[in-house]
Protein: Metallophosphoesterase
Organism: Sphingomonas tabacisoli
Amino acid sequence: MHRWRFLFVAAAVLFLAVGYWNATRMPVVRRGTVWVNGWSANKPPVRIVLISDIHVAGPDMPPSRVARIVDQINALKPDLVLIAGDLVSARLLTTRRYSFDEALAPLTALHAPRIAVLGNHDHRRGAADARRALAAAHIPLLENRIVRFRGLTIVGLDDMYTGIPDARLFAKPLPQPVLLLTHSPEVVRRLPPGERLVLAGHTHCGQVVIPGVGALVSLRKGRRTVACGIVHRNGRNFVVTGGLGASIVPIRYGATPDLWLLTFQPKPSHL
């Protein structure tokens, strides 16, 4: 009996250790090209980095780790960095909770302009504090607002579950191409149909994905998969990042941290 207890404890420790190592790896850089109709053939490409779910908290995501990821992003030389929410963590299992100011400090070293929306953890930790810290860090918050950037229309929507996303932003036609930046991709269920690319996070690509079983976080909802990567669903196009940090517990399996480098460029005539 003691032998089986020892094996069980050893297996549990190994599982947690490997999961923690997976969760604290440098994010994988995933790349995609978006061909834009109607742009002049002479228009230079626009390179956008999408990150989400930083979840700054101890021990797995201290500000020092965010600083290393910022160096990784700067090396990609993007024109714009989009942050799809969950800047901090509201989880219970943590060795330290960081303030919004502490969490955002490393992001001020990004060389490119940046735009953020709030996620569910940000709202739970205090949306007012998040707004103040973002303003102090000179990171624009696109909370139910629209901006134009180098020919792109970027719409920022509040979080679906803890905020108030304003679907009225799509009441009138918007200049194409339209990028919808939001935390959860599920917000599209509240929006009218229309041509737009949805950039989101929230799903962590499952965070803990068991082969043959699926993502554990989705099983309680009766689903075996979660939105992740480039997704085409019901006539809509999504890019859903797996995020940088971890939620609930600081472990990952089958869903490594990632970020996206998206290149928007004129569509060639042969495509």
User: Anything to note?
Assistant: The first helix runs from residue 2 to 23. The first strand starts at residue 28 and ends at 36.
